[in-house]
Write a structure and sequence with these properties.
The chain is α/β, with parallel strands linked by helices. Helix content is 45%, strand content 16%. It starts with a helix and ends in a 9-residue tail after the last strand.
């Protein structure tokens, strides 16, 4: 572990855009805890109130990814996602801030009436190309990047969710932010999908030598698929920080729960709807149906079951996405 901790020095040398406006707040959730009779102290880390681009976890990732794109002389950011992608919205906002062109590839039909993130993408001036399926997104992005290069442009391709080792460094830094706020929870619960947030949290806890257990609540994929993606990203983080990526990935177990996915990605469940109402009516917090409502359902379910009773402090990392409520 001491060898791994040397990676923190390298972390501070990696450039990032100033998009966060300072540490995001941490609040207690006493009324929710009382309502569900939770034993541990219950906290929430509010990445939903990051001031840039309607906030969310993608801002932490794109702050580093876009800084790299700018350093490499890019004039266009390209990425992929669903029609209501939070990541696409943040990428479009960062491109606007940097004076870059933004090209998005979205799977699904072009909406007849723009709403939610799709409306914000349009306001930000992003060009959106639609493809029928998830599988067609990455090839379409690669083809568009080649077109831009052929026309003399300098494109920078950002994979889904900016869930790359470079993007995940945003959450390695976020763990340092948490420590700086004087909070070392026994458990962190968050939404997981493409793996970047979870990889960054796990690597950050390892590098800061925290005993914190990190549990991702899946928005779509089973634990085995998530674990493979998260491990690959953590190993890549090790390479970026000039430390042993395999040792970094082995430092803590990769835990995810897929019991709250329900009918599939973005489809509300009775548990996620209850969680959404409970957070709103007890703490004034808003969560979207695709990600954070299901993560909140996982939080509530694990607390109710007694699975977290041995923990003194449980922190729910609110990764944003509330724009999706208006889709």
């Amino acid at each position: 572990m001491p060898v791994l901790s040397t990676g923190l020095a390298r972390l501070h040398e990696i450039p990032a855009l100033d998009l966060l406006g300072g540490p995001t707040p941490i609040h207690g959730m006493p009324r929710l805890a009382e309502r569900i009779r939770a034993a541990p102290d219950l906290l929430v880390k509010r990445d939903d109130v990051i001031p840039f681009g309607f906030g969310g976890n993608k801002v932490r990732k794109m702050a580093i990814v876009a800084a790299r794109a700018a350093a490499e002389g890019a004039d266009t950011l390209l990425t992929v996602g669903g029609v209501q992608s939070n990541h696409a919205r943040v990428t479009a906002a960062v491109a606007a801030r940097l004076g870059m062109r933004c090209v998005l590839v979205a799977n699904g039909r072009e909406p007849e009436h723009l709403s939610g993130n799709a409306l914000l993408d349009a306001l930000l001036g992003a060009e959106v190309h639609y493809v029928p399926s998830r599988e067609e997104r990455a090839p379409a992005m690669a083809a568009l990047a080649e077109e831009i290069r052929g026309a003399g442009g300098r494109p920078y391709e950002v994979p889904l969710g900016a869930s790359t080792p470079l993007g995940a460094l945003g959450f390695v830094k976020a763990v340092g932010e948490l420590v700086g706020q004087g909070i070392v929870p026994d458990v962190i619960i968050h939404s997981t999908s493409s793996g970047g947030t979870q990889a960054g949290l796990l690597a950050g806890c390892a590098l800061h030598q925290l005993p914190t257990r990190v549990i991702g609540i899946s928005a779509d994929d089973p634990p085995g698929v998530i674990a493979v993606a998260v491990r690959a990203i953590i190993e890549g983080i090790g390479e970026l920080l000039d430390i042993d990526g395999h040792a970094l990935a082995d430092a803590q177990p990769i835990e995810s729960v897929d019991a709250y996915v329900g009918g599939g990605y973005g489809i509300p469940t009775p548990a996620s709807q209850e969680a959404s109402e409970l957070l709103a009516r007890t703490e004034g917090l808003f969560v979207d149906h695709a990600y954070t409502a299901k993560a909140a359902a996982g939080l509530i379910g694990l607390l109710r079951s007694g699975a977290l009773d041995e923990a003194s402090t449980v922190l729910f990392w609110h990764t944003g996405g509330q724009v999706g409520l208006f889709a």
